[in-house]
Design a protein that fits this description.
mainly alpha; flat; membrane; transmembrane
Length: 71
């Protein structure tokens, strides 16, 4: 199981548990739910597509670092 999927499941569990036990604002619950979905998508895609995603993400970060250093 990938780290992204573990984080997504943890956020979803926290959101559900705290939502039932405590009175939480809808904004916080929506934020936790949205973050869990954001982490869940890369966690469940097939390995081939996951490697492409990680490579593209790394290239984007390197490009942004070069852009910031240029200024």
């Amino acid at each position: 199981m990938r780290t992204e999927l573990k984080i997504a499941l943890l956020l979803f569990a926290v959101n559900t548990t705290f939502g039932h036990l405590f009175a939480m604002p809808e904004f916080i619950r929506g934020l936790l739910f949205g973050l869990s979905i954001v982490f869940m998508v890369p966690g469940i895609i097939p390995e081939k597509n996951y490697q492409k995603f990680k490579k593209r993400q790394k290239n984007k970060i390197l490009f942004l670092r070069k852009l910031v250093r240029a200024h």
